[in-house]
Design brief:
Blueprint: H1 9-28, H2 35-57, H3 61-80
Length: about 80
C-alpha cells in the first residue's frame, strides 16, 4: 500500500490521539454513571479518525473503498452509544 501525504491528515491524527487520551482518562472512572458509554464513543471516534486518516492517505480507489467500509462500523456504533 502506497501512502500519499496531504494537509488533512495531521488534524485527523491529532483528533484520534486526543480521543484515545481522553478514553484512557475515562476508563479510570468507568464506575461513574455514563462513563462506559462515553468510553465507547471515544474509542469509536478514534477508530473512525484513524480509518479516515488512512483512507485520505491511500491513492488507490480499492484501498479507499476498503477503509471507507471499515469506518462505517464506527459510524454505526456512535449514535447507538
Amino acid at each position: 500500500m502506497y501512502w500519499q501525504y496531504n494537509v488533512f491528515v495531521l488534524p485527523l491524527i491529532v483528533a484520534a490521539a486526543a480521543s484515545l487520551i481522553v478514553a484512557c482518562l475515562v476508563w479510570r472512572r468507568r464506575h461513574t454513571p455514563g462513563a462506559q458509554a462515553f468510553f465507547g464513543i471515544l474509542i469509536a471516534l478514534s477508530f473512525w479518525s484513524i480509518g479516515y486518516t488512512v483512507e485520505m492517505g491511500c491513492p488507490a480507489l480499492e484501498d479507499k473503498m476498503f477503509w471507507a467500509r471499515l469506518q462505517y462500523l464506527a459510524v454505526a456504533v456512535i449514535p447507538v452509544l
